[in-house]
């Protein structure tokens, strides 16, 4: 279970901090520390379930170093992502120097996948790729943020 693994790792980190005599709050609440009540309310309004695991996942979507790859066999996150990362949610999101204003749905099985990927990179559109079991390695440099801008283009 993902939540059990996260809790176990967090407890190990706290043990390491204790043994190295670093000062910290033992009662630290990860979710409250890493997100605001307004963010959590907005996430719930956008269709995210109200459980701890989903809330932590939403926090990771906000604090990523690389573009996230979300594996969601249940399809539960699609509605949330579409609402959260579109201007329909009432605001634009600044991520990695580009402003995402819409969500483009595509699939690795879609004949125009590469065109959709290129367009998303060029114009800063959020790209939601379905059917990841047919994963295309062309996405690796994008997920690792190993793409370069040349003359204003990616």
> If helices are DSSP runs of H or I spanning 4 or more residues, what is the number of helices?
7
Indicate the structural class.
mainly alpha
Distance between the termini: 38 Å
Could you list the spans in which at least 5 consecutive residues all have pLDDT below 50? 88-100
Q: How much helix, percentage-wise, in residues?
A: 40-55%
Shape: globular
Average pLDDT taken over every residue: 83
Total count of strands: 4
Helices, strands, pairings?
Blueprint (H helix, E strand, L loop, with lengths): L1 H18 L10 H5 L2 H9 L6 H11 L14 H8 L8 E3 L2 E3 L2 E5 L5 H11 L2 E5 L9 H4 L11
Parallel strand pairs: 3-4
Antiparallel strand pairs: 1-2
Overview of this structure, please?
- One of its GO terms (cellular component) is cytoplasmic microtubule.
- With 154 residues, this protein is mainly alpha-helical.
- It has 2 domains: 64 residues, no CATH class; 89 residues, Rossmann fold, CATH 3.40.50.
- The chain has 7 helices and 4 strands; from the N terminus they run H-H-H-H-H-E-E-E-H-E-H.
- The strands form 2 sheets. It has a two-stranded antiparallel ribbon with strand order 1-2. A two-stranded parallel ribbon has the order 3-4.
- It starts with a helix and ends in an 11-residue tail after the last helix.
- About 8% of the residues have low confidence.
């Amino acid at each position: 279970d993902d939540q059990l693994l996260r809790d176990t790792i967090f407890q190990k980190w706290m043990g390491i901090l204790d043994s190295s005599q670093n000062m910290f709050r033992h009662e630290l609440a990860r979710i409250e520390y890493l997100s605001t009540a307004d963010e959590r309310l907005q996430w719930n309004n956008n269709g995210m379930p109200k459980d701890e695991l989903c809330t932590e996942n939403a926090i990771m979507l906000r604090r990523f170093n690389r573009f996230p790859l979300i594996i969601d066999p249940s399809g539960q996150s699609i509605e949330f992502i579409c609402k959260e990362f579109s201007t329909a949610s009432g605001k634009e999101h600044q991520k990695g120097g580009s402003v995402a204003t819409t969500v483009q749905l595509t699939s690795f099985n879609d004949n125009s996948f590469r065109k959709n990927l290129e367009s998303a990179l060029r114009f800063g559109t959020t790209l939601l790729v379905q059917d990841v079991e047919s994963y295309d390695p062309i996405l690796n440099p994008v997920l690792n943020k190993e793409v370069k801008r040349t003359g204003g283009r990616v």
